[in-house]
Amino acid sequence: MTRVFITGGASGLGRALAEAYARDGARVCIGDINLERCAETLAALGPNAHALTCDVTREADLEAAAAWLQANWGGVDLVFNNAGVADAGGIDEMPLTDWQWMVDINLLGVVRGCKAFVPMMKAQGSGHLINTASMAGLIHPPMMSAYNATKAAVVALSETLQAELYPHGIRVSVVCPAFFRTNLAESVRTSNAEMANLTKKLVNKSKIGADEIAALVKASVAKGDFHVLTHPREKRIWLFKRAVPFSVYAGAMRRQMAKMMAKRPPR
Question: What is the distance between the alpha carbons of residues 188 and 96, in angstroms, rounded to a whole number?
Fold first, then answer.
């Protein structure tokens, strides 16, 4: 029976992943800071599920989760470092406290999860780390510098670990979705009301939801894919970026920025 641990597992993509694996008969442990949502999700997952209070900004919480899984399920097979938050706005608009918040959750939260579970996986000689980044970590749209930077760092971390951990029988994947219907918009911090509204609009009006993304992620993880790219259009943009001189791609980004600025009311 597959043993799964998911941070941010009580809502959004985390919950969708938890439900997808639970339907297949896996043992699923979710970690989340929202106890009410944990209880709701746990009720939906069935008898082979467990929930733990887990704040990814606290190393002790991740270590406690790893200890629980070792003591109660004898280890873990899949670890989804999935918890994340969003921010948007220009470089001169975003306070450093928001940068620190983003780094602590989006990047260091993933680092803490990897550090907590890698010793167990090395001892087992097996395991799979699945780190949630974003297409924003690959194609870097304007007005999202902190989000882009943290997600790009998750991609870099994952690329490093896939080579570092391969000799120990540990696989690594990085999930890079674009906008999809989820509760991520609830966590958006920004001093730019236009960017907040645009982000929420893109999330809420997306044609694809968390359940569809979870199914795509689950299939890619089963195949052992490293890059899990769930949106064809954004994947094509990434391939275009890789194929052309950077000046060509940069020009496209500047044109996108010009369109965004043209829509802003005069100050």
Answer: 15
Cα–Cα–Cα angle for 219, 86, 114, rounded to 5 degrees: 55
pLDDT confidence tier of residue 255, bands split at 50, 70 and 90: confident
118-160 residue pLDDT tens: 999 999 999 999 999 999 999 998 889 999 999 999 999 999 9
Prediction pTM value: 0.90
- Active site positions, annotated: 147
Evaluate whether 152 touches 103 at the Cβ level (below 8 Å): no
Domains and CATH numbers, the chain: 3-233 (3.40.50.720)
Residues with Cβ < 8 Å from 25, sequence gap 6 or more?
1, 2, 48
Query: For the residues 206-230, what does the mean pLDDT come to?
Result: 93
Signed CA dihedral, 14, 215, 18, 72: sign only:
negative
Q: What is the DSSP letter of 266?
A: P
Return the bridge partners of 173, or none: 130
Encoded tokens for 152: 């790009």
Asked whether the predicted pLDDT for residue 3 surpasses 60, the reply is yes
Residue 131: its H or E element:
strand 127-132
Query: Measured at the alpha carbon of residue 28, what is the angle toward residues 175 and 137, in degrees to the nearest 5?
Result: 15
What pLDDT score was predicted for residue 205? 61
Number of other residues whose CB lies within 10 A of the CB of residue 165: 19
pLDDT for res 64: 98
DSSP string, 158-190: HHHHHHHSGGGTEEEEEE---S-BSSGGGG-B-
Residue 73's nearest CA partner among 49, 40, 56 is 49
What is the per-residue pLDDT for 267? 46
Buried b or exposed e, range 117-139, using 16+ CB within 10 angstroms: bbebbeebeebbbbbbbbbbbbb
